[in-house]
Design a protein that fits this description.
The complex is a heterodimer.
Chain A (H helix, E strand, L loop, with lengths): L36 H11 L8 E6 L6 H15 L4 E5 L7 H5 L7 H6 L5 H4 L1 E4 L2 E4 L8 H4 L10 H7 L1 E5 L9 H5 L4 E7 L5 H10 L6 E8 L13
Parallel strand pairs in A: 1-5, 1-6, 2-4, 2-5, 6-7
Antiparallel strand pairs in A: 3-4
Helix pairs in contact in A: 1-2
Chain B lengths: L1 H31 L4 E9 L1 H7 L8 H13 L2 H9 L2 H4 L8 H12 E6 L3 E8 L2 H58 L7 H4 L4 H30 L6 E11 L4 H29 L8 H6 L3 E6 L8 H7 L10 H6 L1
Antiparallel strand pairs in B: 1-3, 1-4, 2-3
Helix pairs in contact in B: 1-10, 2-3, 2-7, 3-7, 4-6, 4-7, 7-9
The chains are: A alpha/beta, B alpha+beta.
Chain lengths: 238, 338
Amino acid sequence: MAIVGNRESPMKPRMLRGNREKSVQDASPFPDTVLPPESFRQMFVALDLPPDGHPIVGVTSAIRGEGRTMVALGLAHTLAGDLAGPVTLVELDGEHPTLATLFGLPASPGLFDVLRGSEHPVEDITHRVADNLFVVPAGACGEDGIGLLCRLPGHNPFEQTVARRGAVILDLPPILAYSYTSLAASLADAVLLVVRAGVTPIEMVREAAARLDVSCPRGVVFNGASAPTGPRASGRKL
Amino acid sequence: MRRYLDTFQRLWFIVLVPILVLPIASVLWARSQPTKQAVTANIWVDQTSARLVGNGNPYITASGTVSSYFTELLRTSSFDLSAARAAPLYWRPLAHRPNAKDLVQADLSKQVQAQSGGANLVTLTYQTTAGAAGKQLLRSVLREAAHHISGYYQQGLLKNKTALEAQLKQTRSQLATASTHLSAYLTKHQLTPQDVPSQELADPHLQALTQAVQSNQSSVKGYQQQIATLSGASALSGAFRVVDKPAAAASATSKKAQILPLGIGVLLGLLLGLGFLVARTAMDQTLHFADEVPMLLNLPVLAVVPYNRGLRTKAPRQARQAKAVVPAAPSKSAEKAG
């Protein structure tokens, strides 16, 4: 039985057809309940990051609609179950925030409020949504929201918390939509570029890949493939 | 090839619709067309008349002569127009058209065929979709043709008679000359006409003169007989008679005519369907297979997330319409090298 959160209805998760109602506590907006968790484990293993460290993994895409947030959610949920330390999913897409509505969290305060200099401590914007899994919503983006992203490399609000928190998954905005995405991505130890089959033109993906830091490990997550995964197409380590 | 198969898998309905629909539509269209009917009439040709007006060629039969008269008449626009006007059912839809004359001539010259069957029988066939109008038209053609062909006959008889009379005159002149020579010879040798039979055996010259006179006399008689016969034939009222009145029968369509619409439909459907498949695949600039990523982007594929219908959103349409909002930035490696 699988239950997927409904982005249009912020109050409660939507049920898939044919399933009986479950309580909100048992609702699962995570895609790895309908997609194999092994896909997300493959991503993490392929990045070749130390499992006992405190990695920061950025998830981005060339344009919207490629499944960036779904991959970040699935990866965070899977790692939360597999890793010893806590996993924090940070939403950096201020223009189209979804995590607050997905988990029924208050939309504000969020990350952009903290970057703007509000008095809310980081702990106030970090919400526990499942075992070992924490979510930081984007908060109120405002007109200056995108510009705040360029402050991230110099003012990382999670610097003190990473050492204690464990792995961090950054749900970055699309690269071609905002120039500062590549700046925000520089925070990450590794970046996943989500590409959706049959959607994004090759030139756009090429442009997005070119904007990523070549010194940072990066790879492609091919989303929506019609053929099953094969040894050649998946599981490559950097 | 794989990309074509992938496109077909996603859009098989659009590809197959023209391949299936067009042949069916073309067959239905062909069946909906009005069936052509063949209106035929058989006529009997008077052999004597035809022989008299013929040019003496023993290989041209009477029916062949009349058949060629019909063909010549049907190519004449005035004949076609008068025959059409005398058939109201046929003429009514054409009467108000400015190019009615050309239409009628084109129709009759191409669709009416006169064929000879045997020495005396000619069959007229008219291919049309309107049986009743076709029968009326064919009757009108036969009536008009009867007048014209009688006229041809009269002309032919007159022409032959004139030629015969000229030859008769010439032969008479030769006879007169031969008779004068014979008389002179008889006078010279003091012979009488009664002495000719007994003397000609001993006298070769007398024999030759006598034979010349006799030959010319028989030629004159022959020409006179032919002229008399032709004079008697000019009173003939008709050159042919209709033995089978015009009757319509559905003309059997050839196998080729049955298969052609289906073939065209299949060909057109294949062109459209496969053309769409090829064009769509060629225009598709997106990635469809994971192994294309390393080749085109020079990046490794870390994982492949299989397609799940339950997670499908409206985003793909928005994604296709998205455009890069900022110009291309130089790559960071180029910056670091600089």
